[in-house]
Amino acid sequence: MSVRLECLTVRYGDFTAVDGLSLELRPGELFGLLGPNGAGKSTTLRVLIGQRPPSSGQVSVLGHDIVGDWSRVKPLFGYVPDRENHFEEFTGRHNLRFFAGLYGVPDARVEECLHLVELDEAAGLHVRGYSLGMRRKLLLARALLHRPRILYLDEPTANLDIHSGKVVRRILRQLVGEGCTVLLTTHNMEEVEEICDRVAILCKGRLVALDTPLALRQTHSERKVDVILRDGSRRVFDLEQDRERGVLAGHVERDAVASLQTREFNFHEAFLKLTGTAFD
Amino acid sequence: MRWRILHTLLVKELQRHLAQRGGIVLALMLVAASLLMTLFQADAASGTPMLGAVEKCYIDVWDHDAWVQHLRDHVPADMAKRIRFRHIRRQFGPDATITYPQGAGAIQMRPAPSADGTPRVKIWLWHPDETGSGLAPFEAWFWRESARYFQKQAADSSATNALHVEVERSQLRGGVDAKASIVSALVLFALFLSCVYLMPSLMCEERERGILLAQALSPASPLEILGAKLLFYPAAGIALAATLAGIARPAVLAQPFFWLALTASACGAVGIGLTIASLARTQRAASMGALCYMFMVALFLFICQQGKIGILPNLALEYHGPRMLHAALSGDVLWFHWINLAAAGLLAVCWLTLATFVFCKRGWQT
């Protein structure tokens, strides 16, 4: 396993932010962590990047305990925070070169990462002149400098335009293809369905669902059909009910159906059903 | 500590200042001030007295006779704490000189040699300022009471042996030298600018914006990140301070005492700066903390001076710093300046210990 969380509990005083969370992230997997505000996603990430010790439970990364063996864990991962943290007075390239100096990677890798996130043309500009999307792409470039085996991303595509969002998703899939394990938190349902191999849904610090997006779709899709009949009336048929299936079949046979549409999987509704909380 | 990482972090600090330029402009202004002072006060190398206030007046006597006793018995209440009688023979140092502390004056009552057997006495007035105005209230009291004593003597006896009084005035060496004072202030300001203002301010800015966290997640250890800051800012402060002092008094750069004083002051300033950086969470709080600290210390020293509290100011690094640097810059390093240096060194150790404690307690990343 790349990352293993066993009964992870994190408390802030009396408040339990993460309550007995157990997860296993496989090598070369793109894992999505979903949950409403206060679900414990950020706290889990804070534990994984060593900024918060677990109150109880164990966390290991590639076999190294995150508390006892932190110096070995640190070089293994890259982290893209939810808020950008660049040196505003430096250029994009200068920012990456500084971190490249710390990681001991050559300047050629800086150019490679800038090219990967399509920032090579803007690399000579000061970061204070960057758009939010450019700043986020620079964060991703920085996290990839040392070719980490695990990548944690907090809302990686927030504030990105459609093209940049696609670029980031492409990069993430590419990394996963190369064997990198990616853990991301996001609010973008389409993104989860599009790129995540597995998804965990957290609510109030507890794990409420863990599966592939497809399995979640199968489990939580509504087997209902919206029908507009030729007389102009609208009907909804529940395909789980034998009687309603029969009625629908009768309408089809009589050619009384003007329009028929199956209901698509709605992650928002599935999420609402699982957590009792609207996704925001 | 790995040199590659330390080097990267040190270069980053320098490049941040080169990119922002605010600190560099301020440093250049200090250099310009030092240059201007040197240009316009080129002929005042010996120093010009500035403040001649006498806080304490020593009455140093050779013989404890009736005259001295009369003076002792007639010290006005408002001067009682400021006048001190001493037997002069006990005050000589190994080099046969008497050293008076700063802000003190003296009236020496010395028997003078006489060829004809006539009793002679030499009243030697020592004042820190050029005109002697600071000693004037004590001198007025001394002559007034002496006159009363001799008038009484004359009335009581018919003795005709006249006492010949010889008066001499001298300015004490090592008084307040205006140029040395201003340069000392510039030197201390340079250290405080670098270690107490810029270091906490930029450290908190990095923490507030999450850059410190980004560095902490890199291979750089917390010790290396902190070490780079604790190397860069004192070094920059000492370099600027030495430049300012060197422009005004080049000879001071050859004085080991100057470098020791500078190092002790810089270490103390770093301790203060790191304490502020550990306590403040934001850049704004750090800047305000630095300014508040300076204001509080100035107020503390002022209150102690006004309240004639002699011991408490010794607890402030800012009390010893100006004295040491002034002595080094005016070329008058006396024994008590070494005590100032020892005290400053001790205070620097205390500040660094406190800073380490607060830093460990409060953390540094969030």
For the structure shown, list the relevant keywords.
heterodimer, A: 280 residues, alpha/beta, Rossmann fold, 2 domains, six-stranded mixed sheet, four-stranded antiparallel sheet, 10 helices, 13 strands, globular, B: 366 residues, five-stranded mixed sheet, 60% helix, 10% strand, elongated
Description:
- The complex is a heterodimer of chains A (280) and B (366).
- Chain A contains ten helices and 13 strands.
- In chain A, α6 links the parallel β7 and β8.
- The model of chain A has no long low-confidence stretch (mean pLDDT 88).
- Chain B is of the alpha/beta class.
- In chain B, α4 links the parallel β4 and β5.
- In chain B, strands 2-1-3-4-5 form a five-stranded mixed beta sheet, with no helix packed on it.
- Helix content of chain B is 60%, strand content 10%.
- The two termini of chain B are 23 Å apart.
- The chains are: A alpha/beta (280), B alpha/beta (366).
**Cα end-to-end separation of chain A:** 31 Å
Number of domains of chain A: 2
> Strand portion of chain B, in percent?
5-15%
Q: Work out the largest interface and the residue count of each chain.
A: A-B, 21 and 23 residues
Please tell me the overall pLDDT of chain A: 88
Q: How many E strands of chain B?
A: 5
Question: What general form of chain A does the structure show?
Answer: globular
Q: Quaternary status of these chains?
A: heterodimer
Span of the ends, CA to CA of chain B: 23 Å
What's the CATH architecture name of the largest domain in chain A?
3-Layer(aba) Sandwich
Query: How much helicity do the residues of chain A have?
Result: 25-40%
Strands side by side in the biggest sheet of chain A: 6-7-8-3-9-10
Beta-strand content of chain A: 25-35%
Largest sheet of chain B: 5 strands, mixed
